[in-house]
Amino acid sequence: MDDGFGNLSLFTRQVLIAVGLLALVAILLYFAGQLIDVMLLVFAGILVAVSIDGVSRLFARHLPLPRFWTLSLAFLSIVLLLVGLSSLIGPPLMAQFPQLIQQLPEALEELTAMLLGLPGIEAALDEVEEPGQLINPLLEQVTKIFTSTFGAIASFFLILLIGIYLVLSPSMYLSNALLLFPPALRERWSNVIVTQGRALRLWLLSRLISMLFVGIFISIGLYFMGVPMAGALGLIAGLLTFIPYLGPILGMIPTVLIAFLASPELALYAILLYFVVETLESNVVMPIAAKGVVRLPPAYTVIVQLAGAAVAGLAGVILATPIAVVAVVAVQMLYIEDVLGSKVDVLGK
C-alpha cells in the first residue's frame, strides 16, 4: 500500500510538473503576443547593432586599431554618409514626397474608374451600391501605409538607441544571455549566437547591395522615361527592396500609379523597367556578389513573410526574413548537427 501511494504521489508530482510547465509556456506565449511590438523593436535594434558592428569589423580588417577606434570610425563614417546623402538628395525629396502623397489617391481613383469601365466589370459589381465602396477602402489603405511610414520616425530613433547600446558592450549582453543556459551548454550557445550574428551581417550586406542597385537604376530609368518624382519613387523602391521578393512588388505600386496619371502606356513602361531591373538584380548583380552572402530559398522567404504579416502586420513583414535567418541557424546547429548528427552548410559559416 505504501508503495502504491508512493508511486501515486510520484505520478501526481510528474503530472503537476507537466501542467506547471505547460502553464508557464502558455503564460510566456501570452506575454510574447502582448509584447510582440516591443520584441520586434528590440530585434530591429539588434539589426542596427549588427550593421554598425559589421562596419567596425571592416575597419578592423584593414587597420590595426583597437575596437574603440574602429567603432568610432564606424559611427563617424555612418554619420558622414547620412549627412552627405541628406544634403545631396534631401531637398528635392522633401519637395517630392508631399506631392507624391497628394497624387497617389488621385491616381488610384483614376485607375479604379478605368477598371470599372472595362466590359463585364460593371455587371460583376451589381451587388455594390456605389463604386466608392470599393475606392474608399483602397484609399484608406494607401493613406494608412504612408501615415504609418512617417509615424515610424519616432520608433526609428528608439531602435537606433537600442542598437548603439548593444554595439557598445556586446560581450556584456552576450554573457548575461548565456547565464540563462546550463554551464555545459554555454560554449555551444555562444557559438550559435556568434554564427547568427555573422549570418545577419552577410544577409544585411546582400540587402544593401540589392537596395542600392534597385534604388539607383529605378530612379535613373524613371527620370529618363519622364515619370514625375523619379527620385522619391526610386528611394521608395530601394528601401522596400530590404524586404526580399515582396518588397519590389510593393515598391512598384506607387510608381505604376503615378505613371498611370500621365498615360497608361507610361505605366506599362514603368512595369517593364521594374521587371528588367529586378531581373538584373536577381540574375546578374547578386550572383556576382553572392560570395559569402546569405540568401534564403524564395518560397521559404515568402512563407515567413506572410506569417510575419499575419502576426505583426507591416513590421512583421519587414523583419520576418532576418528573424528567419536567426531561426535557420539555430535549427541547423542545435537540431540537425547536435541532435541528428548530420552535416549541414550552416548559414553564416
Description:
- It is globular and about 80 Å long.
- It has two domains: 1-34; 35-337, no CATH class.
- Helix 2 (36-62) packs across helix 6 (153-168).
- The chain has twelve helices and no strands.
- Helices cover 85% and strands 0% of the residues.
- The longest helix has 50 residues, at 67-116.
- With 349 residues, it is an all-alpha fold.
- It starts with a helix and ends in a 12-residue tail after the last helix.
> What best-fitting shape do the alpha-carbon axes yield?
globular
Number of DSSP strands? Answer: 0
Largest sheet: none
Weakly predicted, low-confidence segments: 128-135
* Structural class computed from helices and strand pairing: mainly alpha
Strand % is under 5%
Mean pLDDT: 78
Q: Please tell me the total number of domains.
A: 2
Radius of gyration: 25 Å
Topology readout:
Layout: H1 2-34, H2 36-62, H3 67-116, H4 121-124, H5 132-151, H6 153-168, H7 170-178, H8 183-225, H9 230-240, H10 246-262, H11 264-288, H12 298-337
Helix pairs in contact: 2-3, 2-6, 2-8, 2-12, 3-5, 3-10, 8-9, 8-11, 8-12, 9-10, 10-11
Summary keywords:
349 residues; mainly alpha; 2 domains; 12 helices; globular
Write a compact overview of the structure shown:
This protein is mainly alpha-helical and 349 residues long. The chain contains twelve helices and no strands.
